[in-house]
């Protein structure tokens, strides 16, 4: 089961069901979705604009210890304070490496918000914009009509990743405490370990390497016992 998070000022439930979930199901992929609608009073200020801190806490509450395979955010949030670039910056403080796409009815404006207007900036500023895209880890910019197909493509691609599978399995038991195999994570909850792997921290990378080595050692030992 893959899980997608869609952030938009408009309800995307129908679009997800008809344009993403149904086509993926026909191809043998099971996918669910979490929705964050930014036009709700709970995360707005007194002027009915997004409150950044309230939005951060709301996103944290929605994702919690859940495994998220892909995040898609609209650029045009009909808000004076925040747009999709701000959403990406927030997301990267919560889920640093989760695959992410940005979509917009005005995709050129979305790209300019990250890269800058190529007709008015220097080559150095353009380079800074490209570095920003790399840092943000935005895998795709899509027009609003095209974002469902972009999600489908990335869900299929990410489902083949061994790291994605490991993170998902750990998040299936987020509160279970780890006891052995890798001392640095002893006593840590599996959900916390999943986050370290997603962040590609040194401990997260070492843990994956240790799992591989111990799995191979176990397979070799089993084969010896079978007389191979």
Task: Using brief descriptors, characterize the structure shown.
228 residues; alpha/beta; Rossmann fold; 2 domains; five-stranded parallel sheet; 9 helices; 50% helix
How would you explain this protein's 3D organization?
The structure is a single chain. The chain is of the alpha/beta class and 228 residues long. The chain folds into 2 domains: 2-158, Response regulator (Rossmann fold, 3-Layer(aba) Sandwich); 162-225, no CATH class. Helix content is 50%, strand content 13%. The chain has helices spanning 13-26, 52-63, 84-94, 107-115, 123-136, 147-158, 162-171, 190-198, 202-225, and strands at residues 2-8, 31-37, 70-74, 100-104, 138-143. Strands 2-1-3-4-5 form a 5-stranded parallel beta sheet, sandwiched between helices. α3 links the parallel β3 and β4. It is globular and about 65 Å long. The chain starts with a strand and ends with a helix.
Layout of helices and strands, plus pairs?
Blueprint: E1 2-8, H1 13-26, E2 31-37, H2 52-63, E3 70-74, H3 84-94, E4 100-104, H4 107-115, H5 123-136, E5 138-143, H6 147-158, H7 162-171, H8 190-198, H9 202-225
Parallel strand pairs: 1-2, 1-3, 3-4, 4-5
Helix pairs in contact: 1-6, 7-8, 8-9
């Amino acid at each position: 089961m893959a899980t997608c998070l869609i952030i938009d000022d408009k309800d995307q439930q129908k679009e997800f069901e008809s344009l993403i979930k149904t086509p993926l199901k026909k191809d043998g992929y099971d996918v669910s979705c979490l929705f964050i609608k930014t036009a709700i009073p709970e995360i707005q200020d007194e002027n009915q604009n997004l409150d950044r801190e309230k939005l951060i806490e709301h996103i944290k509450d929605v994702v919690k210890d859940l495994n998220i395979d892909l995040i898609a955010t609209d650029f045009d949030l009909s808000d004076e304070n925040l747009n999709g670039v701000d959403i990406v910056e927030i997301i990267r403080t919560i889920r640093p490496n989760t695959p992410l796409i940005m979509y917009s009815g005005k995709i050129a404006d979305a790209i300019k918000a990250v890269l800058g207007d190529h007709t008015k900036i220097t080559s150095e500023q353009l380079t800074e914009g490209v570095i920003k895209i790399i840092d943000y880890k935005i895998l795709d910019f899509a027009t609003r009509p095209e974002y469902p197909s972009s999600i489908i493509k990335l869900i299929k691609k990410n489902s083949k990743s061994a790291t994605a599978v490991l993170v998902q399995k750990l998040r299936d038991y987020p509160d279970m405490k780890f006891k052995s195999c890798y001392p640095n994570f002893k006593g840590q909850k599996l959900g916390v370990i999943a986050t370290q792997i997603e962040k590609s921290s040194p401990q997260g990378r070492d843990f994956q390497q240790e799992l591989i080595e111990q799995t191979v050692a176990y397979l070799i030992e089993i084969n010896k016992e079978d007389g191979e």
